[in-house]
Amino acid sequence: MAKLAPTQIEQLQSIGAYLRQVRQEQGLAIDMLANQIFIRPALLKALESGHEAELPEPVFIQGFIRRYAEALGLDGQTIAQEFRVTPVNVLPTPELLERADTNGAVAPEPPRPRPQMSDRPPKAASGPAGRSPLPLVLSLAALAVILGLGAWGLFGRSNGPSQANNGNSGTESPPETASTNAAAPSPTETAAPPEEPPEAEEESSAPLEAPVVVSANLSDRAWLSVVADGENVYEGVAESGFEETWTAETSLTLRTGNAGGVELSVNGDRAVVMGASGVVRTVTVTPASGVESVESP
C-alpha cells in the first residue's frame, strides 16, 4: 500500500482523471491496455480513480503513469514527471527569522555641538586719567592715553587672529571625531548577509519501464541468486537491510536459501515474504506475474 503525501494524492487524482478521459475518447478498453503494457487491470483502475491505498510505492506509480500515457500516444515522460516521487516543502526556520530580525543598522553617533566663540575683541585697559589742576598732569594723562591706544592697536590686533585660530583649531576637533564615528560602519552593517538555506535536493528516480520488475528487501541474512533473461545478475550472501530492484524483458528467476528473510514485490504489487525461515525457495517472474506468484509455493 502506498503512503502518499497530500500533494502526491492531488497529483495522482489529476493525472488519473486525465488518462481516463483520453482512454474513453479513444474508445479503448482498460483490459486491452492492461495486456498491452503488462499492468493488471485492477492497478490501472486504481490509477485512474486515484485510490492510493490499492497502489504500490510512488516509484512504481510513476512508472505506471509513463507506460499508460505512452500506450495512449501521449508524452509519457512529461506526464510522469508531473507526479513527484518525493515531495519537498521548504519552510523558513527560526534561525533565519532570528537573523532577519537582527539585520538592522546602528544609528551613527550625533555630532557634538560646536562651542560658540566670542568675536568681540579684548577690551583695552584704559589708562589712568587723573585729574590735576596742573597742565603738566593733563599733558601726561593725554600722552598716556595716546600711548595706551597705540599699544592696544599694535598688540591687540596681532593677538586677535592667533587667538581666533587657536580657538577654531580646538573647536573643530570634536566635529571631526564625530564625523569619523558616523562614517565608520557598524558591526551589523559589515557583517556578511545570512546564508540562504540550501535548496533541498529533490530525489529523482527514473520510472521503471521494463515489463518485469522485482524488488527485494531482506529482514534477515540470506543467500540470493538472480537470473534476468538467462543472465546471472546477482549472486551472494546479503545481510539484513539489503534492498535491490532488478528488471527483465521476458523472465526473472530469484532463488534464496532463507525464504523467511526475503520480502519480495513483483511488478509493482504489494510486497510479501517468500516463505518460512530457512526454507530454500525459487520464484520465476514474467510480465503477467503478480503477488500470487510469490504467495503460492
Verbal overview:
By secondary structure, this protein is α+β, with helices and mostly antiparallel strands. Helices cover 41% and strands 15% of the residues. Strands 4-1-6-7 form a four-stranded antiparallel sheet. Helix 1 (6-26) crosses helix 3. The longest helix is centred in the middle third of the chain and has 49 residues, at 135-183. It is elongated.
Q: State mean pLDDT (0 to 100 scale).
A: 74
Report the major sheet: 4 strands, antiparallel
Biggest sheet, strands in spatial order? Answer: 4-1-6-7
**CATH architect. name of the largest domain:** Sandwich
H-E order: HHHHHHHHEEEEEEEEH
Category by helix and strand content? alpha+beta
Indicate how many domains the architecture comprises: 3
Q: So what's the CATH class of the largest domain?
A: Mainly Beta
Summed up, the helix count is 9
Give the overall shape.
Answer: elongated
Strand content: 15-25%
Helical residue percent?
40-55%
Our measurement of the CA-to-CA distance between the termini, rounded to an integer number of angstroms, reads 23 Å
- List low-confidence stretches: 90-94, 99-132, 160-191, 198-207
Please compute the radius of gyration using only Cα atoms: 48 Å
Summary of the model, kept short:
This protein folds into three domains: 6-81, 434 Repressor (Amino-terminal Domain); 124-174; 212-295, Sandwich (Immunoglobulin-like). Helix content is 41%, strand content 15%.
